[in-house]
Amino acid sequence: MRIDAHQHFWLLAARQGEWPQPELAPIYRDFLPPDMLPLLRENGVDGTILVQTLSSAADTDFMLDLAAQHRFIRGVVGWADLKTADAPRRVRTLAAHPELKGLRPMVQAEAADWLDDPAIDPAAEAMAESGLCFDALVLPRHLPSLLRFARRHPALAIVIDHAAKPEIAAGGTPGWAEDMAALAGLPNMHCKLSGLLTEAGIRTGIDDIRPYTERLVGLFGTGRLIWGSDWPVLRLAGDYAGWLEMCRQLVPADAHDAVFGGNAAAFYRLD
Question: Boundaries of each Amidohydrolase-related domain copy (predicted)?
Answer without folding.
Answer: 3-270
